[in-house]
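During data preparation, we tokenized the protein backbone, and the record follows.
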Amino acid sequence: MDTVSTTASAVHLVDGSLYVFRAWHSMPDQFHDADGHPVNAVHGFTRFLCELLEKSRAEHVAVAFDASLTSSFRNAIYPAYKANRELPPPDLERQFVLCRAITEALGITVLIDHSYEADDLIGSALWSLRGHGLDSVIVSADKDFGQLLGERDEQWDFARNLRWGPAGVHEKLGVHPHQVADYLALCGDAVDNIPGVPGIGAKTAAALLAHFGSLDVLLERVDEVAFLRIRGAAACAARLREHAELALLCRRLTRIALDAPIAPTADALRRQAGNGQLDAVCEQLRFGPLTRSRLRALTGA
């Protein structure tokens, strides 16, 4: 796996919802707040956030959260988008709010929007920062983010402590970053209920893009597919002809938006001293003295 040298000067863009869900599933249900509500996900997320800040020493950080499971622009394009996912139960919804409160209390910028997903907010921030000559580190294990990585960017799977740049995307998926959205449009993404082209799997999608370069060129030259040295080439060509419009629709779903409303400069993502709510949030969450002192140290208190 290739690595890209990063320092505290790189902007760290965190896929917050991923780490809240991980904490929800992994932390024992034995933590409760001052009102008796479960807060296991908040405890796990707070631990993750502390470790991230302590390890990275990042000066510029933003955490993106999803608030658009049924209201994103993709749902308008394709109503079945993410229809395979159950809505978070009320206990988890409440914990998401508390995770955002902890993030803000630590002086970290929260990115959230009802039309754009966390992926889009991270992508738009990275694109804007790149225009200012800044490097970005995407903190997430999600393969979708591979499409964003430039030569000076990096993705960090924090739980496994694995880091990779553009070459790592090719190592994982068999395609280059600029081909990831096309690749997912062809083979589909079951996690997000994106169908892809029926009968085209990951290996075939990668082989097609290696030969044609992009989905657009592939569909323009679809008659050539039958003559490729891939298994079931003739059937593959027929499927692409039949489902060309579906493939293009899927790409509208798999492509991360770069025009979400986010602050255009790194200064807006610079860590602050906190919003003065840390003690109150700690009291509500019934954090122990070790967690409280750790959080205070991170805010400079």
